[in-house]
Amino acid sequence: MLPTELTDTAYQAQLAHKKQRLSALLAPFAAPEIQVFASPLQHFRLRAEFRIWREGDQRHYAMFAPGSKNDVILLEQLPIASEKINQLMPQIKAAWQANEKLSHKLFQAEFLTTLSGEALVTLCYHCPVDNDWQAAAQPVAEQLGISLIGRSRGKRLVVGQDYVTEQLTINQRSFSYRQPEGSFTQPNGVMNQQMISWACKQLGQHEDDLLELYCGNGNFTLPMSTQVRRVLATEISKTSVKAAMANLTENQIDNIQLARLSAEEFTQALTGVREFRRLQEANIELGSYQFGTVFVDPPRAGMDSATCELIRQFPRIIYVSCNPETLANNIEQLSSTHRLAASALFDQFPWTEHIESGVVLERR
């Protein structure tokens, strides 16, 4: 739960605690001083999801207290959410209050916004969305200048687009990112730019190739591709791969190849254990690459043992992690061949215990 007041004093104390915790986890590996990237205290979160709670004839935005499914907190605003989300919350509420077709059986609202000012709102229902819903949503979307999506079991209606387009500036160059509804995107836009810039700085300029595992929509891939000869990026999610392909076209980048493989599958492909038709269909010849660096940003579970053994072959590993415990476990497996050369803490989720971090490992 958020503190009563989002003060700088409270924030700095929590950030210091996070640094202390990360330092303790990295201490066995002789980690260098951790570079800390602080977040804005408010309006940093570009995504928000609310339950819609009914009391009498009124429906309200609601969240549950941490660890509880019964302790409901009714909301009118959310200070940690972007200014765009806070602007839209009362406007969307007024829309469903004014139209029974938008409020009937409504149980959830999801907001997706960007630093560049775009917004998409998804309304979820316990009854089928239909043409009447779309007719009611159309003028709301037009008036607010947003996209609206209605979801019910097995059905989705889109008014506008089913994605937003983010604009990020990395090393004085602007990159355009398509972010589809329902797919993963970094929630803290300011911190995301810091993370990408840090990763690019750690990579440096190289004449060889970069391998990226878990590339998502190309969040890190696009800027890093400007610093190497070629990039081979892998991602298992079809939605993310589709967005990444659109982003390559939009940004006119031609030195990236995308493989729709999980990290485990790519390990099997690169080690010759298994052949994949998806690589052949994408005209990807693994033998043509000269990899010097691998970049990984795995899910909370970290990398499996086989993937750790695969990336051990690389002279340099840049690792961004959303779970410091699994990061430490992976570093332990890699520490016999690689040493920690840099470490960073990115406060992606202020006012929580969550730690986002990055490390660079170089072959001994």
TrEMBL record:
Its EC number(s): 2.1.1.35
CDD domains noted in UniProt: AdoMet_MTases (cd02440)
Top-level division of the source organism's lineage: Bacteria
Location of the active site: 322, 356
GO cellular component: cytosol
Pfam families reported in the protein's UniProt record: tRNA_U5-meth_tr
Molecular functions (GO terms): rRNA binding; tRNA (uracil(54)-C5)-methyltransferase activity, S-adenosyl methionine-dependent; tRNA binding
Binding site for S-adenosyl-L-methionine: 186, 214, 219, 235, 297
Family matches, as NCBIfam families: trmA_only
Record-linked HAMAP family: RNA_methyltr_TrmA
Matches recorded under PANTHER family: TRNA/TMRNA (URACIL-C(5))-METHYLTRANSFERASE, TRNA_TMRNA (URACIL-C(5))-METHYLTRANSFERASE
Described function: Dual-specificity methyltransferase that catalyzes the formation of 5-methyluridine at position 54 (m5U54) in all tRNAs, and that of position 341 (m5U341) in tmRNA (transfer-mRNA).
Family, per entry: Belongs to the class I-like SAM-binding methyltransferase superfamily. RNA M5U methyltransferase family. TrmA subfamily.
Name listed for the protein in its UniProt record: tRNA/tmRNA (uracil-C(5))-methyltransferase
